[in-house]
Amino acid sequence: MSDTELHQNLEHRFIVSNGVKLHYVTQGKGPLMLMLHGFPECWYSWRHQIPAFAQEYKVVALDLRGYNESEKPADVNAYRMPELIKDVRDVIEGLGYDDCILVGHDWGGFIAWCFAYAHPEMLQKLIVMNLPHPAKFAEALRNNPRQMLRSWYISFFQVPMLPELMLRANDYDAIASAFADRATNKNAFTPEDLAVFKDAAARRGALTAMINYYRSNTRTFTSQDWDVLEVPTLLLWGEDDFALGKELTYGTEAYVRDLQLHYLSHCSHWIQQEQPDLVNQYMRGFLISGNG
């Protein structure tokens, strides 16, 4: 499906969660598959997955609060994890569903993990891409010097205004280079793709809102006890991730009772955009498994 055909077949809609207007795109009918993007992205990160699964599911790709066309509350506390979990719950219920298949990448993956613990009854299955189980990430931030260095940006994002200035400089060049320069597959992002992400970041208030996820959730990385998750879970991992080491996945089975884990070689952090066919293949296999 070409980009033109993709956009022609998508419906752009809004839904309100806890007083915040959220934008999403949707395609298809059937059980709900809800997709949560990461930083510094938007719904467009799922452009290769939406049409691939719309034949069997009602696929909904959300702009997280603060991103792209979704509303951008000014209060930094509006981006705390409890608010983000409420958004997921409100979207599921607001769309008329009791549960969903939840798919998350990067920050969307972190939200997905936390939602699975808060509301396991609302998930049929969980799919997370390149975001470790929160317990493993917390452990790495305490004991893994290499990961501490890789996560330098978390501390940098606590500084007022400077991160926004850096990301805005030279026509949002840092946004584009995060994809184009960090990707293993240099053909994964066209100039048009990069423009979508730059334009999303350039919306009024978006940069501060996006960075406020880091400013308001620092303790969430390290302060919670994590039991064994009962929701069937698929964890996909691009081995060339520049921000999160592969070793963060080791031992995940201690926290997830029913886990499938697949590594994708020659693939960076932007896993579903760099190797969409293989990602979709693993997703399909996981969704079929255990369904008779």
UniProtKB/TrEMBL annotation:
Domain AB hydrolase-1: 31-274
Hydrolase found in the keyword field: yes
Phylogenetic placement of the source organism: Bacteria, Bacillati, Cyanobacteriota, Cyanophyceae, Acaryochloridales
Domain of life: Bacteria
GO molecular function, one term: epoxide hydrolase activity
Pfam families given in the database record: Abhydrolase_1
Enzyme Commission designation: 3.3.2.10
Keyword Cytoplasm: no
Alphabetical UniProt keywords: Hydrolase
Record-given protein name: Soluble epoxide hydrolase
